[in-house]
Amino acid sequence: MSTPAHEALDRHATPWLFASALATTAPHFIHQPPWLSAVAGATLLWAVWLWWKDQRLPSRWILIPLVGAGSAGILLEFHTLFGRDAGVAMLVMFMAMKLLELKSRRDAMVVVTLGYFLLLTHYFFSQSIPTGIWLLAAMWLVTATLIRLHGGPSSSPRDTLRYAGVLCLQAIPFMLVLFLLFPRISGPLWGLPTDAHAGKTGLSDSMSPGSIAELVQNPDIAFRVRFDGPLPPRQKLYWRGPVMEQFDGTTWQPYKGRYPAPQLESLSPPIDYETTLEAHNQRWLLALDSPRNLPAEITQNGTLTAVSQNPINERQRFRLSASLDYRFNTSEDVVVLQRNLALPAGSNPQARALAGQWRASQTPEGVIDKALALFAAEFTYTLQPPLLGRHSVDDFIFQSKRGFCEHYAAAFVVLMRAAGIPARVVGGYQGGEFNPLDQYLVVRQSDAHAWTEVWLAGKGWVRVDPTAAVSPDRIETGIASALGFGEPLPMLIQLRSEWVRTLRYRWEAINNAWNQSVLGYNPQRQAELLARLGLSDTDWRSLAVALGGTCGLLVAGLMAWALYKRPERDPTLRLWHKALRHLARRKVDCAPWETPLELARRVREQRPELAEPFQRVVDAYLVARYGNTDQHLTTLRDAIAQLR
Amino acid sequence: MMLKSTFSALAGRPRAFDGILDQAGQIILGKDHEIRLAIACLLANGHLLIEDLPGMGKTTLAHTLARLLGLQFSRIQFTSDLLPADITGVSVFERDKSDFRFLPGPVFAQLVLADEINRATPKTQSALLEAMEEGQVTAEGQTRPLPIPFFVIATQNPAHQIGTFPLPESQLDRFLMRIELGYPDRIAERALLAAGGQRRRVEELTPLLAPDDLPALQREASAIHAAAPLIDYVQALVEATRQNPAFQHGLSPRAGLALLAAARAWAWLAGRDMVLPDDVQSVLPAVARHRLRSAQGGGYALAEDIAGLIRSVAIP
User: Fold this and answer.
1) Among A355, A546, B85, B303, which residue has the fewest nearby CB atoms (within 10 Å)?
2) With an 8 Å Cβ cutoff, are A622 and B274 in contact?
3) How many beta-carbon pairs below 8 A join chains A and B?
């Protein structure tokens, strides 16, 4: 138990350390640079080989340059040694290199400590259920390694793992208390490294041909929605993102300046819902069109888009409300209308000429119908459109006639503007997939969409979705059925098999439950919970009191349980232990393997004054415990009474 | 010694055995513990293997015990040309009766000393070992019971292994105990030299037990009370041998029974009517070492490993 730290490491403990190192670093292999994975893996294999062959570990003069080279590589890769990615890479490299230095128990303790620390770093990258399960198992293994380092070879691996498992299980009540009561802070407690939110994709704030088609190939979930009432019809599910008014010939971008406040008139009863947004590093909320009665921390900009104060860089939940039918800005500012008629000079002459002809003979509604009829007649909806030239809309309308939603939206807006009707592109998502198991509507990146708004006198801004004219299926059933076979859609959303779909629904329902209840446990939810427990005034002080109190109660409960478990049920043993405690107070300790008679002999040598009374205790105890009778307890009790 | 404690719960130790221990101790000097083990082995109705160098008193011990216990004694010197029939006996043709008559071999005795058992071929060894196990001899199609009690003391010389057939593990298991006598200490050796050998004095010993006493005493020893915690202890020790990396394999259930039987006999010799953990610890090396294989070298388990084993098991 009290083995000194510098003592040589037990050879049979080393595989535990290898396993711990592997378990705590392995998930990082997914996202760290491949060369680092290769170096770490090779180092581990080298260490295992040295151990297997019982060879000497490399000397310090090899290890120091190795660590230097590794650090230099990380510096070259990340241009820093700090921050999330570089910091984790350093830890992984340290862990791997330490395996070449496992000489003493102290080295082993370093590996264990590093292992516990590495466990935490995985949560920077993923907080999913599989990650949680993996890390719990890894924590169990690291704890078992720690026990193995202290316990020596006497216990079998199974016993060691069982002991570690018991320890981990005993930690669960504390984990729950800390989870529920530790003060929640919106946003991370420590300033997260600046690169912590890198790599989270979503709808971008500009649109050019191909940008949405690329996003559609991503099966990740964009947000989940639960409606208070029934699910609205699918063709009304337009999730509004950025509105793009400025066109430079290829790219559409939102107008960054000021807008007058929107005038919104709801024509249908409000639909209340709760949305859980995945991080997408943008400020817009993707609310159901049209958003109304937004919560205080959300503002609505001049183009009706709901906007948060800070970028959504972690999963967040909002309660929102929408009117499916509405009238928006029937009296629009002239400046805004002018902006929505502008076209780059000299671009797309053919399209402008065509729109000019329509304008001469038609009302605005007639122009819209003409354009939609044009798309419906000859155009194909595909994720793989041909490349377009400088006059992209001309090329699209008169030559390729194949495109994705952004092509139709862009072409439609150009046609409208050329025909003198103010028009703009709206980005967002359309539709979603309803999971019947947990009643959530799941909207994926593959549901990304672009549609248009035109301004008509007396009606205000009216939504027109030219994609619906080309491919009604896209709006009515979803993208998977709208596209032909062989389009590069992710496997996941190509709903071919019934049981795969059911399985996916189930997995998503579990994931969603996890997100809602565990990851979504934010300050409000904590406040709600505490209010239900009768703690309505929840500043950090009352939380600290609740936390400390509950932990104290838990410890007291566990101790009471241990104390209850401890005393022997057997009265003979209880009396004997009393006698042993008596001896211990006089500095005579009994080893567990020592027989009472041997103990009596030792007492005679070390404490002659106790020899005779203790011999009587031993005699009475032996008869009571090992004899063929149980009437000697009073003798034992009397003998113990005479010990003092 | 713990045996001389003021432990008073059971004082009525059979007097005959005091005398036997005492007198045997005067012949084999300085080996009280080994003599006690040998007698406990006999009381537990088990066979004894004595392993030591020549001239350490193996034969003398066997002879002494036979005399003191009033047992009919026979000695078989094992050699490489010894045949099974030389042990069990042969049938000879009697001309006047025109029939075969069985001449019992030396195995038909109450105490058989099998000297240097590892010198004989495995076939001959197994003839004796079968007799030990079955308590009977089958020769020429006829089964003949051996006398009761039947007790074999086999000796083995561990040092000279050339031309010998070491007993395999399965045969070693037939011996309840295996003991080593070892060199006498200085005082004992001085006394031995002064007295000029003990063999002569063995002949002068008078039996202290009647021939029929021993089976009754064996029954008495086997009835000694072993309480549940004591059986727990035996079980824990046996289980510990199976997990201890110092041994190649653990003790068999039969070895556990042997350990308990030996501990009962040891307790009976100490004059108690119950088995104590001390009894188990005292007989454990003699019962367990030849049944275990050391993980280092593969010989018998080392005495230190048995001590370590005892220290690894808490007494319930």
Assistant:
1) B303
2) yes
3) 64
